Amino acid sequence: TAIGTGVGAPKEYTLRIVEVLRQIANVKIAKAENLIDATQNLDTFAEVHGLLKSLAVNLYKISNDIRLLGSGPRTAIGEIVLPAVQVGSTIMPGKVNPVVPEYVLQNALVVFGHDEIVSHSCAQGNLQLNQFAPIVVHFTLKSMRLLTSSCNALAKYVELLDVDKERCQQNLERSSSNLTPLINYFGHEVVSETIRQANYDIEKALELLAEKENTTVSELLKKLNIQKMTGLGYY
Length: 235
What we know:
Layout: H1 11-25, H2 35-40, H3 43-69, E1 80-81, H4 99-122, H5 133-160, E2 162-163, H6 165-174, H7 183-186, H8 188-197, H9 202-212, H10 217-222, H11 226-230
Antiparallel strand pairs: 1-2
Helix pairs in contact: 3-4, 3-5, 4-5, 8-9
Keywords: Lyase
Enzyme class: lyase
GO molecular function: aspartate ammonia-lyase activity
């Protein structure tokens, strides 16, 4: 049975072993349709770990966004209030470190590395056998454990997050991105130049643009309603 032909065991054994493994592992295990292919090629392991890597990618993105939005609160974005799940900085009093997001980020980086090992190991097979199967299984299981721990930790952490609504409103009102829809009417160069001339003051930029384009601020504001800013395309 070493290379999937079944030459070393009776047929009844090959069928029965699957049932026994189901009972032991309490998992719905099925016999591969092509045992020779399943023995020679470990591409299924590469595919499975690829899915684990995709999960790690998403966890990395989520954690990085939380860390970025929680930066501050005075000198950065500060739109999310991070919970103090651990004693903060030993240098700066009152500082809250994003320890859980950074824990998840580091685990994700490890899984990225595991994926490289698994991919290269799956490609190392020679003819009927792949002698690197043990390391493939080892790092696949290790990635599963890391991601399980990361998901559990991040799920609990997210429940403790709070949103600074006032800070969000301030950042929104001060952002020159509010004038983006006007590009569709006056061009990118005109709007960008006006924003710079107004030193990124939104009210002043609207006044300058209205003067340049021989219109009024109220007319410009009509082009900045929420539907025009969040809908599909502009009208």
